[in-house]
């Protein structure tokens, strides 16, 4: 499947801003399951855009603007080709040990970061009843158990916006029984890591034909005979050609699509729109000049920042 993705972020400030710094993790990765053929960022300002790879291998674009306007628009557009030949966790034959509390295989050094509970996917007493209910039986295939955990989360918790935010700990989901894809993914990661299964957070997009596409999050588990493989607890399915990966990390705090800071007072309002569409063939090199207009609604977030305009605050900055 060939997908064109547009991710628009509009930022407005209630008061003038003296400096603005931003990082973007929006470029789709290229691996065995997908290939990013084109990627372009348009900031709307004449500023140099730099890039680097972070400690998790994600490609990060960053830039800063001195005395930016009170409204900034960022458009990230890409063309990605995805494959449907993704085995998912069920392709693994790896099994739990006889006591069902451990795994009889060594974890590579680069995978160890994805074992400790931390950040939003932390341990909480509210998690203990779920761990008891989801405890794997001896010799059970790990991949089958991973799918059961995801289906349990999907069945027990309601998908609802405006109940949590992207960095909410799993306590909020466990208390309110409602959340979004970030919460479902953090909870799945916490359960898997509690039983010694390496799991990581994936940020990206999901294409939904004849429906609103959106930025999305899901979980990848590491199994020795298949490597990293993904499962989506929100939709209860293995990752397939409709999913596009942009970044991976221990949890959401490692992979926000946009991350930044500004110097100034007042509130910052962020509106985000995402649109995807399928293409019959790969476009020309100038495809970004003929992008279809975004006709999807914006999702707004209001964030209030402390006042950095005083002399003492500026000195501290």
SSE arrangement, N to C: EEEEEEHHEHEHEEEEEEEEH
Structural class: alpha+beta
Strand portion, in percent?
A: 35-45%
Q: Kindly identify the CATH topology of the largest domain.
A: C8orf32 fold
Query: Quick one: CATH class of the largest domain?
Result: Alpha Beta
Query: Over all CA atoms, what is the radius of gyration?
Result: 21 Å
State the share of residues found in helices, binned by percent: 10-25%
Strand order of the biggest β-sheet: 3-6-1-15-16
Question: Would you kindly provide a written description of the structure presented here, covering whatever features stand out?
Answer:
By secondary structure, this protein is an alpha+beta fold. The protein has 2 domains: 2-83 and 256-316, Immunoglobulin-like; 89-239, C8orf32 fold, CATH 3.10.620. The protein is 15% helix and 37% strand. It is built from 5 helices and 16 strands. The chain has helices at residues 128-133, 142-156, 170-176, 181-194, 311-316; strands at 2-13, 17-24, 34-42, 50-53, 59-66, 71-82, 158-159, 178-179, 199-206, 214-223, 227-232, 237-238, 243-249, 258-264, 267-279, 299-304. The protein has a 5-stranded antiparallel sheet, with no helix packed on it. Helix 2 packs across helix 4. The N and C termini lie far apart (47 Å). The model is unreliable at 301-317 (pLDDT under 50).
